Amino acid sequence: MKLSVVIPLFNESAVLSLLINELHHNLMTLGEAFEVVCVDDGSADDTLQQLLEMKAEKPELKVVSLSRNFGLQAAIAAGLEYTKGEYVVVMDGDMQDPPELIKELFKKISTTKGDVVSAVRSERGEKFSKRFYINVFHKIFRNISEEQQLEQAGNFCIMSRRAVSAILKFTEQNRYFPGIRNFIGFQHDTIVYNRPDRAEGQAKMTSKKLFALAADAIYSFSKWPIKLCLYLGLLGVVVFLLAIVYTLISKFTGLAPTGWSSTLLVISFFGSVQLTFLGLIGEYIYRIYKEVQKRPVYLVKEVYE
Fold this sequence. Notes:
single chain; alpha/beta; Spore Coat Polysaccharide Biosynthesis Protein SpsA, Chain A; 2 domains; elongated; glycosyltransferase; transmembrane; Glyco_trans_2-like
């Protein structure tokens, strides 16, 4: 098997037929043996039924049905586990990752003999608010991450079997696939493309899910949340020392402040700082608890090969 394509799917019945037909057409032109691993992430519509019907006509389809909706990151991990190809493509199932780019990704990794080629977005077709949030996240994440991160790189990529094997060694519950892909190292190349908007249907990555994914990325690959606590604490100490100096000068010059306003401001400031610390520490404790539980990242209901 030369090439495997992993596609996580959740309620994508509106675009599924178009996606599989476009993908099959482009993969046939490669002239290489291939498989398409579609992971049904607990869809509530007829996504799974459509996949099984198409599988009867396209034997290269492999369908992995999860027991419930575990999320995009878990579905990608499940798909990688069931691939057999020498090279593995990961792409979204909403047609925003154009299937015709797989030929370019395959040509690039075959030419460079590298391990990862990521598709970097130069332009995006989504609405302005979503583009704004994503651009802000990538700017922040690139600057605060401990490892060098690719800006505007999502899940769409091609990887060698060596890179896939390395990624499968990661067992954490809170996953961010692009961050893990960069963390493993190896030779990493890129191609640039314009990302279109969805062809049909509703976006499954809501604002809430996007913010949750951004939090997973930052907490997993950056020290900055805990460093922020330290810096706020130091700032509080500086403000407290300045307040002492101001109070002593006012006392000796007879301009001592009257009332409770200054006291309330100081109490409010330190109270808010402490609550911020507790919230961040609580987030870390929760994530540690999730990892210590060692629950499965996903559960497979059935595999149709």
